[in-house]
Amino acid sequence: MSSPALSIRNLVRIYETEGERLQVLRGADLDLYPGELVGLVGPSGSGKSSLLHAAALLEKPTAGEVIIEGVNGLSLPDKMRTAIRRRQVGFVYQFHHLLPELDALENVALPRRIAGAGVKEAREAARARLESLGLGGRLDHRPGQLSGGEQQRVAIARALVNDPRIVLADEPTGNLDPATSDQVFDALSAACRDAGAAALVATHNLALAKRMDRVVTLVDGLVEAYAPKTA
After folding, report:
1. Domain that residue 12 falls in
2. In the predicted model, what is the mean pLDDT of the chain?
3. Which residues form the ABC transporter domain (predicted)?
4. Considering the domain boundaries, does residue 170 fall inside one?
């Protein structure tokens, strides 16, 4: 088996507000391998978003390691951590967070530009991603001119435009109706598989989760293999 694209080790996350202490992660471990699609399930408040944000190097947990490219990203200075995140990690949110004043092509090209690409290269990469997701005819449309499913496919294209090795998605279909949810999941799955990226997808939709290569669940702050309830 190939080496993990992402290794999470002993991840702990404690929130403290106004004298209250809430521990949502208690030593979570997870390996994510290139080319696989993994579902992450668990009840609301179980720590799925906390795990994903730490894995994406978007926030620092209380303790633990997030190993990307053989390096614990959490131990790096902010600048180096940001560089790894931009180069190696794509993140898809439940709400698309597209910039309303930019059209689809500009929204998707932006991360490529931030990573250092020239305007022409960034636009070409963005166009290719959008066309692969069936949005070739919507390149000049702003988010307000797109349907919810189209907006989320633009967000997927944006997450993949820098060719990340790791794709993390936090309830990417949670804001969509069932039919659109299936379409967006199919688009995300196909895009990740075509790119050979390792993907971890948090979802409340068990039917979608079971279509992935494997499913893990957060139980009492730990990652476990998923087992459906029996009667």
Report:
1. 6-225
2. 87
3. 6-231
4. yes
Assess if residue 19 is contained within a domain: yes
Count of alpha carbons within 13 angstroms of residue 197, beta-carbon side: 27
Structure tokens at 11: 């991840």
Q: Is residue 230 part of a domain?
A: no
**Total structural domains within the chain:** 1
CA dihedral of residues 60, 62, 64, 68 (deg, nearest 10): 0
pTM of the model: 0.88
* DSSP at 188: H
Within 33-174, strands assigned E span 37-41, 63-68, 71-72, 89-92, 166-170
Provide mean pLDDT across the span 166-195. Answer: 84
142-86-133 Cα angle (round to 5): 40
Determine, yes or no, domain membership for 56: yes
Q: What is the mean pLDDT of residues 193-197?
A: 86
Cα dist from 167 to 120, 121, 139, 162, whole Å: 25, 22, 23, 11
Are 32 and 6 spatial neighbours (Cβ–Cβ below 8 Å)?
Answer: yes
Encoding tokens for residue 66?
């997030």
Of all residues in the chain, what percent carry a pLDDT higher than 90?
A: 40
